[in-house]
Structures are given as structure tokens and as C-alpha cells.
Amino acid sequence: MAMKKQNQVILEETNIQEENLDKPKKKKIKISKQTKKSIKVKKQKEKKNFKLAMKELPIKIVKEINKIKWSGWDNLKKKYIIVLLFMVFFAILFFCIGLGIEALFRLIKVY
């Protein structure tokens, strides 16, 4: 009985050793942060299920419409006034630039 146990232990040890020999040891390779940033991994494209996409389309459209924030009257009034002020400011600015160029041309007698 002791001989059988001893043989089993020896067999188990040899099996364990053989298994360890079969599996190569994996070594970790250290990669720098710059190399990791420069490596680009291509994503595999999945096939699109067009039937499912057509069924989900109305739901997606409704979700996108709900994301839109509609402006109120006060907000629109404020934006309208800001746009008008910018238009007036730039109209005056370009008018003054035009007068300056005209005066410059008269000074050098081109006009």
C-alpha cells in the first residue's frame, strides 16, 4: 500500500513537471509610454443589421429631437440685440476705415 502511494506521488510529480515543461513562460515586455501612444490599433468593423437599424431609426430620431433646446422669447430677444449691435459696430468700423483710406489717397494725390 505504501508502495502504491509512493508511485502515485512520483507519477503526480512527473506529470506536474511535464506540464510545466509544455507551457512556455510568458515574459512581460515593458513598453514606454511614447511607444504606447504611437501604436494604433485598428478596430474591426461589425456587420450592420439594417433591419434592426430601420426599426430603431424612429426611436433615435425622437431622442435627437429631445436633445434640442428650443430658445425662449427672452433668449431670442437678447441674441437679436447682440447681432444688431455687432452689425452696427462693424458698419461704423468699416465706414471709418473707408474714410481713412480715402483721406490717404487724397494726401498722396491718387484719388
Automatic annotation (TrEMBL):
Pull one GO CC term from this UniProt entry: membrane
Q: Where in the cell is it found?
A: Membrane
Q: Name one GO molecular function term.
A: protein transmembrane transporter activity
Q: Where are the transmembrane segments?
A: 80-105
Primary subcellular site in the record, as a coarse category: membrane
Q: Which GO terms describe its biological process?
A: intracellular protein transport; protein secretion; protein targeting
Sorted alphabetically, the keyword list is: Membrane, Protein transport, Translocation, Transmembrane, Transmembrane helix, Transport
Q: Name one Pfam family in it.
A: SecE
Q: Which NCBIfam families match?
A: secE_bact
This chain belongs to the protein called: Preprotein translocase subunit SecE
Look up and give the organism this protein is from. Answer: Mesoplasma entomophilum
Task: Tell me the classification of the organism that encodes this protein.
Answer: Bacteria, Bacillati, Mycoplasmatota, Mollicutes, Entomoplasmatales
